[in-house]
Amino acid sequence: MSDREPRSRRKRKAAQEKAALEPTVHPKLPSEKETSKGSRTEEDVQERRSSTVKIAFVLVFTALGFALAAVIFSLYGVTGHRDADDSLVYPQAEPLYEDDIAVQNEINEFLDRPVSVEENYATVGNAPSESSSSSQVLYGSADESHASAENTVEIQPSMSEPVAVEMTHAESVVTVDAPIPVHTVIESESRELLYEDSSETEASAVQLESLLSTEESAVADEVSIAAHLEIETSSFSESTPRADVTTHQGDDEIIPTTLVQAGGSDFPEASHASSATVESVVESLPSTFQEEPSEADAQGESIERHLEEAEELLEKFPEKALAQFNSILGTDSLNPRATYGKGRALEKLAEIKKSNAIVEDAIKAYLDTMSLPKVPNELYLEAGKRCADRMRFLGAYKRALRLQLEMSEKLPENVGVKNQIAVSYLMMGRGKEAAKVLEEVLQRDKENGFAKVHYGFILKTERNDMEGAIKYMREGIATKEPGVTDGRFYFHLGDALARTGRAKEAEAVYKEGVKEGLFFSVYQRSLYNVRGLKAQPWWRAGETPYAASIRELERNWKEIRDEAISLMDDRGFLPESENLRDTGDWRQFEMFSRGRKLDQNCQRAPKTCALVSKIPDAANCKRGQVKFSIMHPGTHVWAHTGPTNCRLRAHLGLVVPPKVRIRVANDTRTWKVGKFIIFDDSFEHEVWHEGESFRLVLIMDLWHPDLTPHQKATLAPI
């Protein structure tokens, strides 16, 4: 036996002795081990499922919170970007788990992209009226104060109308009727972005399905929700109703589009699970929490309310309206409606205070309105019309014309602007240019009533084409368009009919004018009127405050006659210029006109001018004249009316041959040497000279006795 055997025995014996000294450990029975293992597996599964539900709830609630935060963030883009945490007005969701922070960071980076949000105030109303807007002798008007005869369209925008959101990437306008969800903003930013995000979602879904096992499907649902948060839309694809979206392409074409619901079909189970969860969370929120308006909406509603209040103040309290418009402009300096309202308020103040300086301020406000970058075309046109009107009121016809030509260049297809250009030409005495513009309008729009009546007016007054005038004015009036129901056109249409021998048709036109409120009566058809003045065709000196002055002139009638006769060979006698003469020769020599003394002519007739100067209501009558009138045999003056009811016309007979007569209304009389006859020339009157020698009279206009001193001082000259 070798030495190895004893040593081996000794080692075994030592090991046995050592083992005997250690405590005995009983191994677990197999049945106990299996039971314990099974129990622990069930507990682990339940615990995992419980954790999964909690995590899913937290993630969904967090997604909802960030979505709503992004809504507020995007709406606050007008006033400046805010952090998402600061924009939330409700308690914050629980902190994200570490695994989800990376996903949320990607969301935040996407949401931090700039999105331009602009609130445009839409305008509502009819197309601007095209009526003329100033009273000048060459063109005529029935408006006493020179205020515009236009029908002004008020912009009454409503904050309930869609809010226009301008997307900088796609360069399209998206209109929605409700607060804009984050998914709507993201999807509307760019079609390319939508398609790219959808592809990424599909790829992430395939990757998830390949990595996760079947028994972990609940966790897979949870992770797919987090993946969908990259585009926000999948978690709301079923639960959040999409706002209707209209994409405007160009100015005319409007194409409705439907937003793509990214990810919905790729992850049906995940989408359904997340949708149900979000629906339950949203339904559990208080109504005020779900519908809380943004600060931008509140600010817009406040401006809208103040605009409406200011516009209501315009008519009766223009100063208060002006202060309110200025206050609005302090908050929103580029608000077209407020800038235009400022001009209207200034225009009203100018009328009250009779201040040309304030008229200039109104003109500036209208020009400012037109220059704003976001002014709607309707408001641009309205401001331009009023601006040109006020310029013409101040006599700045060339300035108004330049403005209108600029407007026409900007809006070349707008015939209304061209019509107003024609009016400006008419007021400048440039009938040929006006006719050319109106012919261009009628080539574009053959049935344009405004162009027709004005073109007919020119045919009558400039070209003496009565038949053409009747055709165009009659057709134009029949359209009943804005601006055609005007005393000027009824006046000249009736006159053209009368001159062509159609007296009954003329009378019918005048009766229609009375019915429309354009004339006081069939006989009294003046256009520049003050209401409430006594109206009768013939007057006696004793019915006026001028009886003593009239007697003084009658006592000096021979000196006046001799002075007039001495001037008959003078070039100061000029042919009648109003196209009132049918036949014969009728000339006049003016000494006072529109309240001003004509010094050069008065130097040739000093006695007569000295006598008239003693009668202030004659010498200072801004709506009249003092002149010698000579009419030769064979003269017939068409039936006509004077321009205003603000004066009485007195004729002093100086040389009165037989067979001369004057009809006023339906009463015909004649002159007497050395005596005055007094009539109201706003009534129709007609003159015949069938004698054999000239007739010579002094014509003197006097303020109507019923006018107040204030009216005499403030009425515009004619």
TrEMBL record:
Domain (Aspartyl/asparaginy/proline hydroxylase): residue spans on this chain: 554-705
Annotated Gene Ontology cellular component terms: endoplasmic reticulum
Keywords: Membrane, Transmembrane, Transmembrane helix
Any Pfam family hit: TPR_16
Transmembrane segments: 55-78
Compositionally biased region (Low complexity): 270-284
Residue span of region Disordered: 1-47, 263-297
Record field: compositional bias (Basic and acidic residues): 29-47
Superkingdom of origin: Eukaryota
GO molecular function: peptidyl-aspartic acid 3-dioxygenase activity
PANTHER family membership: ASPARTYL BETA-HYDROXYLASE, ISOFORM L, ASPARTYL/ASPARAGINYL BETA-HYDROXYLASE
Similarity comment: family membership: Belongs to the aspartyl/asparaginyl beta-hydroxylase family.
Protein name: Putative aspartyl beta-hydroxylase
Species of the source: Ornithodoros turicata
